[in-house]
Amino acid sequence: MTLPTKTQKSRRLISITPEVADVLRQTKGAQILNQVEFGPLWQDSGFVFTRPSGAPIDPELVTKAVAKIAKAAGFTGIRLHDLCHTHASLMMKAGINPKVVSERLGHSSIAVTMDIYSHVLPGLQEDAAEKFAKIAEAKGADQCLNSCCQIVANPVPIHRPRGGK
Prior knowledge:
Layout: H1 18-38, H2 59-72, H3 80-93, H4 98-105, H5 110-117, H6 124-138, H7 142-153
């Protein structure tokens, strides 16, 4: 039994590494061999990962397999969906453009991604300030910035005539 996807963006194209493409090709090769072996009993489910008969794998079996692998690696309480969050958090921490992260996750907007994952970016404001300072310095604008900062820090009072604007 298959359920409809959560949103239209649930089905999307994403880039993969050559290594992942190799694994998918190997999986497809194994499916072709299984298809020959099962003959007319083969079920073309359209899925990448299937039972040897081509039938879909029960999602609960995948969930249990992930939990078992995580436990063997010393992690407890890891759910399949947690892998998605880990993927997103690692990409955000690595400085991947949040728009790209959002597209890979199938979020409806970049705002959703930033609301969920911006906590993994501590020091974002400080980093932005440092980068801006380097750009300004390279452009010779450091004197202008210093002057602007002094004006903002020590504003000169403006005297207006009474009744005037």
